[in-house]
Amino acid sequence: MSAVGTAVILAGGLGTRMLPASKAIPKEMLPLADRPILQYAVEEAAASRVDHVVIVISEGKETVREHFTEPAPTTETLRAQGRTEFAETSAAPSQLATVEFAYQLEPKGIAHALQQAQPLVRGEAMAVVYPDDVIFGKAPVIGQLAAAYERRPGTILAVEDVPDSEVSSYGIVDPAGEGDPIPVRAVVEKPSPEEAPSRLGIVGRLIVPVSIFEHIAQLTPGKGGELQLTDAVARQLSAGEPVSAVRFTGARYDTGRPPGYIAANVAAAMQRPDLADSTRALVQQALEQD
């Protein structure tokens, strides 16, 4: 078994930034090109050779389970009609990985959501994935972080340089020096640009050892009664445990906001030889309209 035995995908949120589209449809199930946002996260895990996935969902998101479960009525109907190619496309999500589900019954924060997956986690470490962040590139980001974990076991944070205008929207790492991965001295949650120790913002991928659960168990609920994962990482640092950061390669899109979602749809189509040319022409046509 790989040291990173499980990818935990956190998909229990309300999706308020995407209302009203997310009122009846989980935002993670909104499509990018011809597949839901969440499927890209599972595909990334599979491409990183992490074949066990736990998706944390909330009540009312049963369509997520249906998408990754076979047999499905749509698949069976297509097979009965002899439409084999479409049936295989319909069945493909359930064949990406072994997918299990955990429920977060109350919105008590990211760390609380991760706690719900604890009984299902395999291996000495896990990838934690925020599916809103869809990242396109030659190498899957989970795999990049897993490789860094092999070089320096401990928590590995995916980071990218963020502009001054966005610093206050991110957790910012305080580097303790250079390296690959970069050793981290501290994590500062949403500082002002003047107070930020760097411009390295944490994005929606990280590797954490299973010992993170011990730190989560010691957390005190913060604003809104929530348990935050950055607070657990801070406890790791205080305990002298290694925390590192990796400048990943790839283009990231925040699909939890309308502008990022729209851009991600275009980017997803441009990854596809069967869609790229027609998408480029239609986008150009739209841009030329008054």
Characterize the largest beta sheet: strand count, sense, and whether it forms a barrel. 9 strands, mixed
Q: What CATH first level would be assigned? A: Alpha Beta
Specify the CATH homologous superfamily.
Spore Coat Polysaccharide Biosynthesis Protein SpsA, Chain A
Helix % is: 25-40%
Structural Rg: 19 Å
Named CATH topology: Spore Coat Polysaccharide Biosynthesis Protein SpsA, Chain A
Distance between the termini: 57 Å
Major beta sheet, strand line-up: 5-4-1-6-11-8-12-10-9
Extract low-pLDDT stretches: none
Which outline best applies?
globular
**How many structural units, i.e. domains?**
1
Mean pLDDT: 94
Q: Bin the strand percentage.
A: 15-25%
CATH architecture: Alpha-Beta Complex
Q: Number of helix segments?
A: 10
Structural class: alpha/beta
Fold and architecture overview:
- The relative contact order is 0.16.
- The chain has a nine-stranded mixed β-sheet, with helices on both faces.
- 32% of the residues lie in helices and 25% in strands.
- Helix 3 packs antiparallel against helix 4 (84-91).
- With 290 residues, the chain is an alpha/beta fold.
- It has a single domain (4-288), classed as Alpha-Beta Complex (Spore Coat Polysaccharide Biosynthesis Protein SpsA, Chain A).
